[in-house]
Structure formats: structure tokens, C-alpha cells
Write a structure and sequence with these properties.
- Helix content is 44%, strand content 16%.
- The strands form 2 sheets. The protein has an 8-stranded parallel β-barrel with strand order 1-4-5-6-7-8-9-10, surrounded by 7 helices.
- By secondary structure, it is α/β, with parallel strands linked by helices.
- The protein is built from 11 helices and 10 strands.
- 49% of the residues are buried.
- The N and C termini lie far apart (40 Å).
- Helix 3 (68-78) packs parallel to helix 11 (253-269).
């Protein structure tokens, strides 16, 4: 694990322990049971998971004062398959309140909200579902197999879709192995960001595309800024892209998202 991931995992565990002292697990389980089933994650040829992200460690503030629900509404209008909400507070400026606002506020046609964070414990999966999430992102490199299996099992039991995030070929192989036999919808994503330097290497998405295990939907993560990037990853065989910074910086995110979707779908069909 990189120093960055080690730091973020430790901070995540502290946040989890503080939350557990305020909200016992039994309370979260009860809230989860009271919720209706989340909307399904679907895409037509090529899809985009659009991200609500107020800041990033590499780029600094993106749109710190943005209204999470307004941003998510723009994404839905642009055709997003799901709305990713960063809930990490210290480096990304997010919160579970943002996730709850997005999940509760999106009307019809609804799309699922996904919690993106540095999840280390099944309790945080329950937090996500209790806040209304329909999916969670789990970073493969951050945890050992027993801990990952616990998170996968909890997410599956709650009916959440799973995005397993990988950084290299070894992660891709491990993600597929762990996902075997997990009920529900599982996607495997490749993050093009180097977590040692926090620099983005878009070439990684091209280079490692042939290394993806077969049978799992593929998600290209980080470094996608516009139509050309969306078309490129679609041609490399990715089913979806996770896009955050470019959309947060855009004055008309729904237009940029629709343009990227169109470019990706044309690349697939052409």
C-alpha cells in the first residue's frame, strides 16, 4: 500500500470509530431495512458515472461551494448512469450529508448514488446504504483479502452495486478473484492516478485494458477531460468512465457530460 493510501485508510478508520460511537450498527441496519430498493445501474453502450467532488489532493479546490444536489441534477440531465459522491472530508471536502442529499433529492428518472471513500469496514457500507446509496467503491489495494471479503459480502447483502478499484495488473487479477461468486452487480475499475505522486497517467488506461479479466464491466477512472478521452476509453473496451474534476470545473456540466457520452457511444458503435 502506498503512503497516501495508508494515511487515508488510517483516517477513515478513525472516522468510522467516531461514527460507530454515535450511531450503533444496529441503528444503521434498521435504517437500511426501512429503505426502498435503490435504482438500478444501467448504461446504453457506454456510460458515465459522474462525480460530486469538491476538492482533490492534487488539484485543490474544484467547486467547494457547490450544492451537491444541484450538481447531481445536472449530471442526471446529462445522462449519467450513476452519481458518485465523495464523502471523505479532509482531503476531498465531502460528507455523508452530500450523499444523503443526492440520494434523497434525485427524482424521476432516478439514478443510483454511489459512495466513494476509503472504506475499511463493513460499518461504512451500512452508512452508505443508510444514507440512500445504491453502490459503493472499494479500493482493492487498501485491504487484505479477509477485510475485502467482509466489505463485499456486506454490500451484496444490502443490494448495492460494487465498483472494485484497481491500480495495476495485480489488482485487476485480485479484484476478479474476489468478485467470483459475489451475488449482485460488480464492476472493475482502473484508476489512472499514481498514488505515490498523485499524477494522472492516462496511458495506463490503454496499456492495461488487455489485462482486464473477462466477464466484468470495465470502468475507466481519472484523467478524462472531454469527448476525445471518452471516445478513446470506449475504443479500448471500457464500458463506463468515472468522471469528476472536469465536470466539477465545467460551467455547464450537463452539456459536457452529454458530449462525452455521445462521443463514447459513437466510438463503440463505430
Amino acid at each position: 500500500m502506498t503512503d497516501f493510501l495508508t494515511t487515508m485508510a488510517a483516517a477513515s478508520r478513525r472516522r468510522m470509530q467516531a461514527s460507530r460511537s454515535r450511531h450503533p450498527e444496529a441503528e444503521l441496519v434498521r435504517r437500511c431495512h426501512e429503505l426502498p430498493s435503490p435504482p438500478a445501474l444501467a448504461w446504453d453502450g457506454f456510460g458515465i458515472i459522474a462525480e460530486v467532488k469538491r476538492a482533490s489532493p492534487s488539484a485543490g479546490p474544484l467547486s467547494a461551494g457547490a450544492d451537491a444536489l444541484e450538481q447531481a441534477e445536472a449530471y442526471r440531465a446529462g445522462g449519467a448512469s450513476a452519481i458518485s459522491v465523495l464523502t471523505e472530508p479532509d482531503r476531498f471536502g465531502g460528507s455523508l450529508t452530500d450523499l444523503a442529499d443526492v440520494a434523497a433529492g434525485l427524482g424521476s428518472p432516478a439514478v443510483p448514488a454511489m459512495r466513494k471513500d476509503f472504506l475499511v469496514d463493513p460499518y461504512q457500507v451500512l452508512e452508505a446504504r443508510a444514507a440512500g446509496a445504491g453502490g459503493v467503491l472499494i479500493i482493492v489495494a487498501m485491504l487484505d483479502d479477509p477485510n475485502l471479503i467482509d466489505l463485499l459480502s456486506c454490500a451484496s447483502e444490502q443490494g448495492l452495486f460494487l465498483l472494485l478499484e484497481a491500480f495495476d495488473e495485480s489488482d485487476l487479477e485480485r479484484a476478479a478473484r474476489l468478485a467470483e461468486g459475489v451475488p449482485g452487480q460488480v464492476l472493475i475499475g482502473l484508476n489512472s492516478r499514481d498514488l505515490r505522486t498523485l499524477a494522472v497517467d492516462p496511458e495506463r488506461l490503454r496499456q492495461l485494458a488487455p489485462s482486464f479479466p473477462s466477464g466484468w464491466p470495465r470502468v475507466a477512472e481519472s484523467g478524462l477531460d472531454g469527448q476525445e478521452d471518452a471516445a478513446a476509453v470506449a475504443r479500448h473496451g471500457y464500458d463506463l468512465a468515472l468522471v469528476g474534476s472536469a465536470l466539477m470545473r465545467s460551467s455547464r456540466p450537463e452539456v459536457l457530460l452529454a458530449e462525452m457520452l455521445d462521443a463514447g457511444r459513437k466510438a463503440v458503435s463505430g
